[in-house]
Structures are given as structure tokens and as C-alpha cells.
Amino acid sequence: MSILNLAGQQLDVLVVAGDSVKFNLTFQDESGNAADLTGYTIKAQVREQPGVDPAINFQVTNNGNEVTLYIGPNLTTALPAFNVWDVQLVSLDQTEQRTLVRGAFRVKAEVTV
């Protein structure tokens, strides 16, 4: 039996409370070429659990097929230890939406304050 996975790539994230979080994601098409994200908006959020209001909206910078996600240190301090996150591609006319990346977003307590 074959499975068609449309749930997005699993990517778990572990951060320390009070640290800023910044990382890049590079998207490719099925052939390994740079994905064309023209005509789409990238959204990324962290929530305590699916279906609840977002705890954090990532600051998103889109540069071709590379997307930079950023959260400031004051925002990671407010997060509980266990969360979920995802990155979605949304068409400008809002008729298409696809989850590209999803996973757990865990926060460890900081030591130095």
C-alpha cells in the first residue's frame, strides 16, 4: 500500500526560553530545483496545541525559495514547555493553503537570567 503524505515535513524544534530563534528553510520542488513561491504568502505559528489561538507568529522574510523565520527573546520566555508549530504556504487570493513543515516546538528553561 502506498501513502500520499500531504501533512508536510516533520521538523521538531528545541529552544531555550529567553533566547531569540532564527533559522532558514529552503524549499525545492520535486525535481530538486528552487521552488517558485511567487504569488504565495508564508505564515508560521507556534501554538500550545492545535486549535487554540496562536501563542506566537513568526516574523517571516521570504527571499526566493529561502524563508527566514524569527522569534524575539521576549516571546520565547512566555511559551510553555510543550508546543506545536507549522509553516503554511497560502495563495494571495486565499483559495489555496498547504502545510509545508510541522512539528513539536519545545522550550527548555533558561539558566542565566
Sum up the structure in keywords.
single chain, 113 residues, mainly beta, Immunoglobulin-like, six-stranded mixed β-sheet, 1 helix, 9 strands, globular
What does this structure look like?
The structure is a single chain. The chain is mostly beta strands. It has a single domain, classed as Immunoglobulins (Immunoglobulin-like), CATH 2.60.40.10. The protein is built from 1 helix and 9 strands, in the order βββββββαββ. It has one helix at 73-77; strands at 9-10, 13-16, 21-26, 40-47, 56-57, 59-63, 66-71, 82-91, 97-108. The strands form 2 sheets. Strands 1, 2, 4, 5, 8 and 9 form a 6-stranded mixed β-sheet that branches. A hairpin with a 5-residue loop joins strand 8 (82-91) and strand 9 (97-108). The protein starts with 8 loop residues before the first strand and ends in a 5-residue tail after the last strand.
What CATH calls the topology is: Immunoglobulin-like
- Tally of individual domains: 1
Report the radius of gyration as a whole number of Å.
15 Å
> DSSP helix count?
1
Mean pLDDT: 91
SSE ordering: EEEEEEEHEE
- Report the oligomer: single chain
How does CATH name the architecture?
Answer: Sandwich
Indicate the low-confidence ranges by residue numbers: none
